[in-house]
Amino acid sequence: MPLPDVLLFTTPACPHCPGVKQALGTLAQEGLIASMEVVDLAAHPERAQALGVKSVPWFRIGELEFEGAMSLGELRTWALSAASASGLKDYFFELLKSGRRRKVEDMIRADPQRSIALVDLMRDPEASMAIRLGIGAVLEEFQGSAIAAPMAPKLADILHDPDPRNRADAAHFLSLIGDAEALKLLRDCLNHADPEVREIAYDALSNPAA
């Protein structure tokens, strides 16, 4: 994975902006970020509006967005995460854990391919029931839109996961996605060895909305 670029919005009156700017500069010196652009929100309000920036410091490390003060250690952790294959999964984990589901939805609407990170998250052994419920709530928000359709091929693999909870969740999430590929996979599940998967598939396909 390439090193992440950083975009930082500040204002002259912001008390926390200098600390965040300095810490991000330290990460640049450490070779953990590729570049850093600092933008004065007051001078470029149109750019801030386009990105949904409402308060400062606001910064983006790679594709991961943050608001507010953050320590050097926290910033270093996220810079390393942003440069890894698990960065978006880790980011969604934190958003769902802290009740910021809408942010997850906004990011996936902007790029539906990001929904694939939710599949990686559901397989994370640290993902609690609350996290799984959060994933389900995100997919319910997208139900009927096919926004989360990129998840379907990876969910197909999990239908045969050794963990029965993962198998059942994969079937349930496919039922929420509901596009042609997801429905085809659910039809295949009507003969699945797991009775819970069969039941979820039957219920989903029996629903007139399906």
Describe the structure.
With 210 residues, the protein is of the alpha+beta class. 55% of the residues lie in helices and 10% in strands. The chain contains eleven helices and four strands. A four-stranded mixed beta sheet has the order 2-1-3-4. A hairpin with a 2-residue loop joins strand 3 and strand 4. Helix 1 crosses helix 3, helix 3 packs across helix 4 and helix 9 packs across helix 10. The longest helix has 14 residues. The mean pLDDT is 95.
Could you give the distance between the termini?
38 Å
Indicate the mean pLDDT: 95
How does the helix and strand content classify structurally?
Answer: alpha+beta
- Taken together, the total number of domains comes to 2
Strand runs, count: 4
- The CATH class label of the largest domain is Mainly Alpha
Shape: elongated
Q: In percent, how helical is the residue content?
A: 40-55%
Briefly note the CATH topology name of the largest domain: Leucine-rich Repeat Variant
- SSE order, as H and E? EHEHEEHHHHHHHHH
Q: How much is the radius of gyration in Å?
A: 20 Å
Low-pLDDT segments: none
Strands in their spatial order, largest beta sheet: 2-1-3-4
Major beta sheet, specifics? Answer: 4 strands, mixed
